[in-house]
Write a structure and sequence with these properties.
single chain; 554 residues; alpha+beta; Alpha-Beta Plaits; 4 domains; 16 strands
Amino acid sequence: MELKIEYLILIEKRASEALYRLCDSLAAFDKFIQSESSLIITKGKITCNASCTFNYDVTVGEVTDKEQRYFHLRLGCPKEDEGTIDQFVELSRSIKRLVHDAGGQPETLWNDISLFYSKLAYPLVHHVENLMRKLITYFMLTTVGKEWTEETFPVSVKEAVDKSKRKQYLDVLYQVDFIHLGDFLFKEYQTKSQDELFDKLDEIDLVEFDADSLANLQSFRPRSNWKKYFSRIVKCEDAYLDRRWKQLYELRCMVAHNSLIGKDEYERIQRLADEVAGPLQKALDNLHKVVIPDEDKEQVAENVVSNISALYGEYIMLWKQFEAILSTIRENSSKISENSEIDETTRRLQTPRVSLMKLRDSEVIDDEDYKTGEELIFFRNQLVHEPALYVSEHEITDNIRRLTELTDALKTLSKPLAFNDECVQKVEKCLNLRFMRRTQTTYIAENQDKALTCAVSKAHGRGSGKYFWFGFHRHQKQFLETSSQSYVAFGCGAEDTVVLIPFNDFVVFLDFMSVSEGKGRYYWHVHIALEGDDLMLQLSGKDPVNLSKYLIPH
């Protein structure tokens, strides 16, 4: 196959009058080309350096009503051996340089040399790109596991997943751009939040600071999956591979977008592909030596998914913020456990779903927030554990909006919502009694004949639609029934807004409240809405009750 190079050489009188007058015919143009001593033109052939002969053809034309002339030059190389091609490239460069130096304007119309080297380069790029995909896929399937939580899905969820538009797992990686494939292994990411780091720094005892303390702090440094899991089995730094992967990406784009590729670019591609493919293949060969701790698997999966697309990455970033805020609320809320100290094992077991459930059962969040959180958890698990599942752009954008709104709502709880004591003090002043704490929400008077429950709630909703939500548990009702005089107190948003209802008045309302029951828990939902300046107890099948008469004065 003949390799061709075509130039359209423009000569304008105004730019170079001498060249315009000199090249007034084909013969004159040939003579001008042969002014380069290494070139000889004879009968449709051009010889370079008296060693290589190539096909040569030229036509001439005039630009109408312009003092401009053009020559359409076509060069042909009949052989594809490396030495001949090098001479052909040198010939084309000599002609371009000659024309340019004389004031002409050579424009490339066609260049098969770029096609030749692109065809040589593409298999190298294709090989290393798919070697990376193979490593990532093999790594995920054999160490993290494909859809490893699927067996925990409810039957209805499994059916929904099975009916959805699915692709093969590997196809997901084929949708990922070359440059982002490198992010799977080489991009550094944090597994712990800044808040956790600050908490750890606050705990440091400089006197007893030792190697273990330093190692603990170093665990907060961002690290890539390559550094974490492969650097011990492949003696190659992630920065070395990342730098070469990015350089290879730039050259790959030149090949893919039909940019001019010469021998120099091809040799760079060849060198970079070899430098990257070697460590990747060694990582594949030693993948059986890689062990990922169970607690790291979720982080690895999230890191992989966040690189599939910008929207996936945005959702995972917001998810990490959501988890961090949940953790803060869990740590700060004294309602979650009688024991405020949570050991590390228990902390790891407290998944977002468990945390939400405890916050709901402890009356810190309401059923609406809990339901939203459940749906967002399920969506996150689909992204992370079912990456082959089709998710539309609209669906993920909508869930990003919902996750942002829930996270913003939970931020108001990130500081301890623990003004029970202040509310109880206000009740004591109102009743002229002294109460002793019995549990987190129950109190008994010093003379043992009066009882109190006290619950607090943040303000839910926005604008004029604010309300307060509480759970009144059956065990609290039974406790209040044991005393001759009992009260139910609700702190609405802050300690300066406390509703104090005699139990005998309150118990009448229970028949008109919705109930939640399960896993040994039974409680009534107490909804108090803010309507103007009034607090209104919401009841089912009955008009709201104005609680103004039960409000303790400021």
